[in-house]
Amino acid sequence: MTSVTSIGALCLQTLIAAARSARDNNHDFQISNTSDQVLAQMAAMGMTPELIVEGCA
């Protein structure tokens, strides 16, 4: 996600759903190389890549 500079709530919901689906089907899911801009936007929505991947979202 290095080239991604913006993320909205709908995209965040999609990532959460994808991570949940991967876990439910015994697959791995990663969010990596996240840009600082996206990390800041996730934080503003109370979320981190780790929370999404770990299923705490």
Defining key terms:
single chain; about 55 residues; mainly alpha; STAS_dom_sf; STAS domain-containing protein
Describe the structure.
It is a single chain. The chain is globular and about 30 Å long. Helices cover 54% and strands 0% of the residues. It starts with 8 loop residues before the first helix and ends with a helix. The chain has one domain (9-54). With 57 residues, the chain is mainly alpha-helical. The model has no long low-confidence stretch (mean pLDDT 94). The protein contains three helices and no strands.
Q: Identify the quaternary structure here.
A: single chain
Gross geometry: globular
- Class from secondary-structure proportions: mainly alpha
Rg from C-alpha positions? 11 Å
Unreliable parts: none
Number of helices: 3
> How many separate structural domains?
1
**Share of helix, binned:** 40-55%
Into which percentage range does the β-strand content fall? under 5%
Distance between the termini: 19 Å
Mean pLDDT: 94
- Beta strand count: 0
Protein name: STAS domain-containing protein
